[in-house]
Amino acid sequence: MPTRVHEFDWPDRVVIGTVGLPGARTFYLQVRAGKQMVSIALEKQQSSLLAEKIDEILDQLITVEGNPFSVPKGTPVELVDNEPLEEPHEQFRTGAMSLGWDPSTAQVVIEAYPMADDDPDEEPLEAEAAEFAEMMVVRMPVGAARAFAKRTREIVAAGRPMCELCGYPIDPEGHTCTPPEA
How far is CA 101 from CA 40, 58, 60, 141, 160, in A? Predict the structure, then answer.
């Protein structure tokens, strides 16, 4: 089965956003180029790690002598996107992701694959059929990648506050924690 690739080489918009209340939010990676838009669901931890790793790549590139890729140290103000998600229609729920750098275009590259079906009642798939039915590839210039990482960190941090004693989120209904033993 051929893989359907949702590919965005120079997207108009790449954002992480959420739907729902803290504690029950669904995170989406939403990409739009012209009239083509794809929204994929992912976990909060995936969102956070994605932002962290993008910043790591960009910070490493800044140290290259002469900063040949013009990587900004901070987020360019003109690229800040605080708008809400457009109505997300989940294309797939993200399982594996990869992150890379394309020096030929000076772009950060995100690849996202759907979660694998782990139904124990199903027969094992043959090697050829085990390929993913679809995936998403997003290429972002360095300034857009820096703005994406900043927004993502803010979205992740906007959730439930963390308990200072146990480190778990505090629900609006209350919180019972057991502090770790010293």
Answer: 21, 9, 11, 10, 33
Asked, for residue 140, whether it belongs to a domain, the answer is yes
Residue type, 117: D
Domain assignment present for 172: no
For the domain that residue 26 is a member of, what is the CATH number? 3.30.2450
Q: How many domains does the chain have?
A: 1
Q: Which of 33, 29, 26, 35 is nearest to 54 (CA)?
A: 29
Task: Please check whether residue 179 lies inside any domain of the structure.
Answer: no
Give, in order, the Cα–Cα distances in Å from 3 to each of 58, 64, 169. Answer: 30, 36, 38
pLDDT tens figures, 30-87: 999 999 999 999 999 999 999 999 999 999 999 999 999 999 999 999 999 999 999 9
Give the residue numbers spanning the domain of 54. 4-157
d(CA 35, CA 4): 18
